[in-house]
Design brief:
With 185 residues, this protein is an all-alpha fold. It folds into two domains: 5-73, Rna Polymerase Sigma Factor, Chain: A, CATH 1.10.1740; 95-177, Arc Repressor Mutant, subunit A (Orthogonal Bundle). The chain contains nine helices and no strands. Helix 6 runs antiparallel to helix 7. The longest helix has 22 residues, at 5-26. The protein is globular and about 50 Å long. 31% of the residues are buried.
């Protein structure tokens, strides 16, 4: 099967954002590439069902659905809710920017999953509210509400008066303030 070069370019361009979204869903760096690869394979196998429009949103929907299906299947696995074991296997970064990013990831992880998805899609991946609502299969107003609540909760968890208190990290500021900047994967 030969893939249209424009579709191929659109799919490849979406990979960094897909990796960031996958990380926000699973919180496990070692699973991110597997989730993205599975989503891309499913997309290629079902490319005939792509009706045009936003390729990234379509890929995000596939990735999210695949993650949710895997999550439902894995409920019987042992969880680490206190993240004790995960914490023992990681080392703390030395630079302040890494510490801020770590603090942000922790705060992001404490959000309800619907709010986390919303702020990652809108603040991190730069999607419009309409596109993000399509990915999450909810109303646009619901998406706006989730993003607003997520940003307010992140600022509260991180004890910030303003997103600019966080410093120069553009990705974190975008998630907190509503800027449309891309996340670095």
């Amino acid at each position: 099967m030969r893939l249209d070069p424009a579709l191929q370019s659109a799919m490849l361009a979406a990979v960094p954002d897909m990796r960031a979204f996958a990380l926000s869903l699973c919180h496990q760096r070692d699973r991110v590439d597997d989730l993205v690869q599975e989503a891309l394979l499913r997309a290629l196998n079902n490319i005939q069902s792509f009706k045009g429009g936003n390729m990234t949103a379509w890929l995000f929907t596939i990735l999210r659905n695949n993650f949710l299906n895997e999550y439902r299947k894995s409920r019987h696995q042992v969880a680490d809710p206190s993240e004790y074991f995960v914490g023992t296997m990681t080392s703390q970064p030395d630079q302040e920017a890494h510490l801020q990013l770590d603090e942000f990831r922790t705060a992001l992880g404490r959000l309800p999953s619907d709010q986390r998805e919303a702020v990652v899609l809108v603040g991190g991946a730069g999607m419009s509210y309409e596109e993000a609502a399509g990915v999450c299969r909810c109303a646009v107003g619901t998406m706006k509400s989730r993003v607003f609540r997520a940003r307010a909760r992140l600022a509260e968890l991180m004890a910030l008066d303003s997103p600019h208190d966080l410093g120069p990290d553009c990705a974190i500021q975008a998630a907190l303030s509503g800027g449309n900047l891309r996340w670095a994967a």
